Amino acid sequence: MTWRVIVGTLSFVLTMILFGYVAVSEQDRMATFDTAYQARQIETGGQLYESNCATCHGLDGKGSGRAPALNSPDLLAGNPPQRLKDAGWGGTLRDYIHTTVAGGRPQATVKFADYPERMPTWSQEFGGPMRSDQVDSVVAYVMNWALNYQNFTPAPEPTVVPVGTDITVELPAGDAAAGEQDVTTVGCTACHISVGGATTLGPAWLASSDPNDQGMGTRAPLRLEQSDYTGKATSGAQYLFESIVNPDAYIVPGGTHVGADGKSIMPHNYGTVLDAQKVADIIAYLESLK
Question: With a threshold of 0.70, does the pTM exceed it?
Answer without folding.
Answer: no
